[in-house]
């Protein structure tokens, strides 16, 4: 059945609006941190996979870095292993690290790979341990308190930060028309595994790859002003001012600092977008309006 004239014009308009963006971003790298509601709702999972496949088909090189905190917590609970957090980070002893590797490198990673491939993509799953993709160092948590004579170093186990990224591995995959899907597990100098925050891994991968965009999928509409309005476009300086005056605070701070680091180290733009919106990635890349907050260096 043929489209009626009005519907046909709407479809043609949508398709033609994407052309300038496709021309601008062909050959560019986009790093996407995938997590939150977008990983849990079946319709959102499907729309995310279709977005990633379409990006690859029009010449963009998507790289997916995923989280999996709720899935880790669920399995730990089933195994009667108690979870403990320090400054929002999971204390990760050897037993917990085994579970983290099982969930992130096995269950979650393979589910995402299968999801993308079922929609026509060619995704490959790996952790930061594969080919020494993500070199890590142990993260030190410092407790500074007026009651203490000197800062206290808190050991939170196998929790790390990114020391370096092996871009040759990612380049090889993207040149082979593959979509890398990376679990945020790094390897230390002694071969030990480290659990690393997925936002930080995505940011450091974007920096190392000199990506065009870093996209962080969240469960919020974007950065908001004190009047509760979404701030759609900000410079790094404006973001720092919003941190200083307390507009940006709490749980959003780590994501924002990750985005700031990215744009200050070679990534053209960082995006905090609403992963609860279907096709959020396509809307952010291929429209002027987007579905969140864009942060640029200047």
Automatic annotation (TrEMBL):
CDD domains: AAK_NAGK-C (cd04250). It catalyses: N-acetyl-L-glutamate + ATP = N-acetyl-L-glutamyl 5-phosphate + ADP. GO terms for cellular component: cytoplasm. Residues 28-274 form the Aspartate/glutamate/uridylate kinase domain. Pathway: Amino-acid biosynthesis; L-arginine biosynthesis; N(2)-acetyl-L-ornithine from L-glutamate: step 2/4. Substrate binds at residues 68-69, 90, 195. Gene3D superfamilies: Acetylglutamate kinase-like. One of its GO terms (biological process) is L-arginine biosynthetic process via ornithine. It is an enzyme of class 2 (transferase). InterPro entries: AceGlu_kinase-like_sf, AcgluKinase_fam, ArgB, Asp/Glu/Uridylate_kinase, Glu/AcGlu_kinase, NAGK-C. The record marks 33, 255 as: Transition state stabilizer. Its main location: cytoplasm. Its EC number is 2.7.2.8. GO terms for molecular function: acetylglutamate kinase activity; ATP binding. PANTHER family: N-ACETYLGLUTAMATE SYNTHASE, N-ACETYLGLUTAMATE SYNTHASE, MITOCHONDRIAL. Belongs to the acetylglutamate kinase family. ArgB subfamily. Catalyzes the ATP-dependent phosphorylation of N-acetyl-L-glutamate. This is Acetylglutamate kinase.
């Amino acid at each position: 059945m043929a489209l009626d004239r009005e519907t046909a014009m709407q479809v043609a308009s949508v398709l033609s609006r994407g052309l300038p963006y496709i021309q601008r971003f062909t050959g560019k790298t986009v790093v996407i941190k995938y997590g939150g509601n977008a990983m849990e709702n079946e319709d959102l999972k499907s729309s995310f996979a279709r977005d990633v496949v379409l990006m690859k088909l029009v010449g963009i090189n998507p790289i997916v870095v995923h989280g999996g905190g709720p899935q880790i917590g669920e399995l730990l609970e089933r195994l009667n292993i108690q979870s403990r957090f320090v400054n929002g980070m999971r204390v990760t002893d050897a037993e917990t690290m085994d579970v983290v590797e099982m969930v992130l490198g096995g269950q979650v990673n393979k589910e995402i790979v299968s999801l993308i491939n079922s929609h026509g993509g060619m995704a490959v799953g790996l952790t930061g341990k594969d080919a020494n993709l993500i070199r890590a160092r142990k993260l030190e948590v410092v407790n500074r308190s007026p009651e203490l004579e000197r800062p206290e170093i808190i050991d939170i186990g196998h929790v790390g930060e990114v020391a370096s990224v092996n871009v040759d591995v990612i380049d090889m995959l993207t040149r082979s028309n593959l979509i890398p899907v990376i679990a945020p597990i790094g390897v230390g100098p002694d071969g030990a595994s480290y659990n690393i925050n997925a936002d930080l891994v995505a940011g450091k991968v974007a920096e190392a790859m000199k990506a065009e965009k870093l996209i962080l999928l969240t469960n919020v509409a974007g950065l908001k002003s004190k009047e509760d309005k979404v701030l759609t476009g900000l410079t790094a300086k404006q973001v720092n001012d919003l941190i200083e005056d307390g507009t940006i605070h709490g749980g959003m701070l780590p994501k924002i600092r990750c985005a700031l680091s990215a744009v200050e180290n070679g990534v053209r733009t960082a995006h905090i977008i609403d992963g609860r919106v279907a096709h959020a990635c396509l809307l952010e890349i291929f429209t002027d309006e987007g579905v969140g907050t864009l942060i640029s260096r200047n």
